[in-house]
Design goal:
This protein is an alpha+beta fold. It folds into two domains: 1-91 and 168-202, no CATH class; 96-149, DNA Binding (I), subunit A. It contains seven helices and nine strands; from the N terminus they run αββαββαβββαββααα. It has helices at residues 3-7, 26-34, 51-55, 96-102, 143-149, 172-175, 185-197; strands spanning 10-14, 20-25, 38-41, 48-49, 65-67, 72-74, 78-81, 119-123, 138-142. β1 (10-14) and β2 form a beta hairpin. The longest helix is centred in the last third of the chain and has 13 residues, at 185-197.
Length: 202
């Protein structure tokens, strides 16, 4: 891996409470540490390092190192902001892909899991009856159930919705980096795996 590609790799950013809030590039992480706005976390020991003490570890094995004319420094994987306690705002893009992901590619009426081309998105309250395209009004449906439901509303006895839909609480930067480094697991693993799979009804 070249130095340029290392600099563009993601670094996980934590707030002062050690909560994951976003990712940045290795390049920006080094700048934040150099300016004293963040500490770099040694993910094996949880020790905090400023820029100089982290650069002193440039002989670390199995860790990519960035070399410049003035210094060498290991690529930081996790960064702790020292002057802010921003909290994550879990908002997921409302898209066909994310609706399918939230509903696990499963029909929310009959529970079937047909091939993806056989799945559709159904408006629980039909658009013809002023139903909106929102997380709470859209679910994955197989074509058969979608056709059978037709223009019916949830108060119809034949409309049997298995789970009440809701907005998912995934962290956007995690869902975009599902193959995150093992060193991130301590900070985002439980949040990622537990929150995403919690789809029980209200």
């Amino acid at each position: 891996m070249t130095g340029k590609s290392i600099l563009s790799q993601p670094t996980l950013v934590l707030n002062r409470s050690w909560q994951a809030i976003c990712t940045t590039t290795v390049r920006h992480a080094i700048v934040l540490a150099y300016n004293g706005r963040a500490k770099i976390i040694a993910t094996d020991t949880y020790e905090l390092h400023d820029f100089q003490s982290w650069a002193d570890l440039s002989t670390m094995e199995e860790t990519p190192v960035i070399h410049s004319v003035c210094f060498s420094i290991p690529a930081p994987e996790v960064l702790l902001l020292t002057n802010t306690n921003v909290y994550p705002q879990p908002r997921v893009v409302f898209s066909r892909r994310n609706i399918f992901k939230r509903d696990r590619y499963t029909c929310q009426y009959c529970g079937a899991r047909p091939p993806v081309p056989e799945l559709t998105i159904d408006h629980i309250i039909p658009r013809s009856k002023k139903g909106r395209s929102t997380w709470e009004n859209c679910v994955v449906s197989c074509r058969q159930c979608n056709e059978r439901k037709g223009n019916r509303t949830p108060d119809h006895p034949e409309v049997d919705l298995r789970v009440k839909p809701k907005r998912p609480l995934w962290l956007p930067f995690v869902t975009q980096n599902t193959k995150f480094p093992a060193s991130w697991e301590k900070f985002v693993g439980e949040l990622y795996w537990n929150v995403e799979l919690d789809q029980s009804g209200d």
